Amino acid sequence: MYYGVVVCDYYGTVEEAAIQKDSRIYEWEPLFYIKTSDGITKVIHQGISGEIVSLEVAKGDRVVPGMVLAFVKEDLFVSASD
């Protein structure tokens, strides 16, 4: 079993989590929306697919680069993506 980590790339606030615990995600789909300190909304996505095991943040939480946002139980098969 492989576990992936979704991390934040920005300083800011979680504006929205587009995923829920136990939901399935696919490569490069939007997972979180982060509003940066300069007011720009950035999208967090990962190049992995699988099942969300846990969410480590909620709407309104402050985040920093490198902070873990979620853990994913990765699929063992490779899916096609650009």
SSE diagram, text form:
Elements: E1 2-7, E2 12-17, E3 24-25, E4 32-36, E5 41-44, E6 50-55, E7 62-63, E8 68-74
Antiparallel strand pairs: 1-8, 2-4, 2-7, 3-6, 4-5, 6-8
| Overall pLDDT level | 92
Overall geometry: elongated
Q: What proportion of the residues is helical, as a percent range?
A: under 10%
Biggest sheet character: 4 strands, antiparallel
- Ends distance: 25 Å
Radius of gyration from the alpha-carbon trace, in angstroms: 12 Å
| Tally of strands | 8
What do you see in this structure?
This protein has 82 residues and is mainly beta. 0% of the residues lie in helices and 46% in strands. The chain contains no helices and eight strands. It has strands at 2-7, 12-17, 24-25, 32-36, 41-44, 50-55, 62-63, 68-74. The strands form two sheets. Strands 1-8-6-3 form a four-stranded antiparallel β-sheet, with no helix packed on it. Strand 4 (32-36) and strand 5 form a beta hairpin. The protein is elongated and about 40 Å long. The two termini are 25 Å apart.
